[in-house]
Amino acid sequence: MQLNNNVTEFILLGLTQDPLRKKIVFVIFLLFCLGTLLGNLLIIVTIKTSQALHSPMYFFLFYLSLSDTCFSTCIAPRMIVYALLSKATISFSECIIQVFSLHFFGSLEIFILILMAVDRYVAICKPLQYKTIMSHQVCGMLLVVAWVGSCVHSLTQIFLTFCLPFCGPNVIDHYFCDLQPLLKLACSDTYVVNLFLVSNSGAICTVSFVILICSYTIILHSLRNHSAEGRRKAVSTCISHIIVVILFSGPCIFIYTRPATTFPMDKIISVFYTIGTPLLNPMIYTLRNTEVKYAMKKLWRKRLFLDDLR
């Protein structure tokens, strides 16, 4: 279907066209990108090397950090480079790859957050059956289901993109390729495609958000029968997860659950879930988790000890 298109590349306007502001964007988002990579890779290495962090919660946290890293790197590096260019272009095929990557790792993050909520529910509400229900085999199977679901969702986005005929113009008023801004460039009626977009991406964001909030509400309500120390630890963990859910799902719901109209604030709101959340996740999970902080300190001391031996 690409052969029916006259457009072979798109021009991305980015966050701003002002030269001074583009330099500011370059510096800020370079720091954000480095912080995201450093924070998430630190969590990945810590969980992988620590013997104390092999429970299902950290199994899912490992893949959440991995998803965050991939999700951020499919957008942020190109955005940083574009801030240095007077004219930022992306080929049609690269645009398709970015749409796939964005939705694959974005939906994977949502599914992993749901699995983490399931893990917390079982751990708090059914502690005696926890090891049986959340075995390594079950966790692995749940993760495979999340990967398959993300792939199906992303392929749907690609199919919808190929259904759009592009005959010009080719200027995307955004800093990355996504189906919403592409709908504005299609030279055909996009009502049906937008309906599929809302029923696909919009439904995933909204339904997942409702499921997660309901799950944590049930979990917090069940804590009334626990000891003060157990309640404090569980509340701290749940609050961390709820913060992540709101920061990621809120902007996604705003973007993907409405008709094909764009607002001036869309690009800024997109920054929250494409750049902000992958940066904040490591800080939220490390600052509020004593086990992760202890494992990181242990890893750091071990590293220093090895350096001293050399």
TrEMBL record:
<dbReference type="GO" id="GO:0005886">
    <property type="term" value="C:plasma membrane"/>
</dbReference>
<keyword id="KW-0472">Membrane</keyword>
<dbReference type="InterPro" id="IPR000725">
    <property type="entry name" value="Olfact_rcpt"/>
</dbReference>
<dbReference type="InterPro" id="IPR000276">
    <property type="entry name" value="GPCR_Rhodpsn"/>
</dbReference>
<dbReference type="GO" id="GO:0004984">
    <property type="term" value="F:olfactory receptor activity"/>
</dbReference>
<feature type="transmembrane region" description="Helical">
    <location>
        <begin position="138"/>
        <end position="160"/>
    </location>
</feature>
<comment type="similarity">
    <text>Belongs to the G-protein coupled receptor 1 family.</text>
</comment>
<keyword id="KW-0297">G-protein coupled receptor</keyword>
<feature type="transmembrane region" description="Helical">
    <location>
        <begin position="59"/>
        <end position="84"/>
    </location>
</feature>
<keyword id="KW-0716">Sensory transduction</keyword>
<keyword id="KW-0807">Transducer</keyword>
<keyword id="KW-1133">Transmembrane helix</keyword>
<feature type="transmembrane region" description="Helical">
    <location>
        <begin position="96"/>
        <end position="118"/>
    </location>
</feature>
<feature type="domain" description="G-protein coupled receptors family 1 profile">
    <location>
        <begin position="39"/>
        <end position="285"/>
    </location>
</feature>
<feature type="transmembrane region" description="Helical">
    <location>
        <begin position="235"/>
        <end position="256"/>
    </location>
</feature>
<feature type="transmembrane region" description="Helical">
    <location>
        <begin position="268"/>
        <end position="287"/>
    </location>
</feature>
<protein>
    <recommendedName>
        <fullName>Olfactory receptor</fullName>
    </recommendedName>
</protein>
<feature type="transmembrane region" description="Helical">
    <location>
        <begin position="24"/>
        <end position="47"/>
    </location>
</feature>
<keyword id="KW-1003">Cell membrane</keyword>
<dbReference type="Pfam" id="PF13853">
    <property type="entry name" value="7tm_4"/>
</dbReference>
<keyword id="KW-0675">Receptor</keyword>
<feature type="transmembrane region" description="Helical">
    <location>
        <begin position="201"/>
        <end position="223"/>
    </location>
</feature>
<dbReference type="GO" id="GO:0004930">
    <property type="term" value="F:G protein-coupled receptor activity"/>
</dbReference>
<dbReference type="InterPro" id="IPR017452">
    <property type="entry name" value="GPCR_Rhodpsn_7TM"/>
</dbReference>
<keyword id="KW-0812">Transmembrane</keyword>
<keyword id="KW-0552">Olfaction</keyword>
<dbReference type="InterPro" id="IPR050427">
    <property type="entry name" value="Olfactory_Receptors"/>
</dbReference>
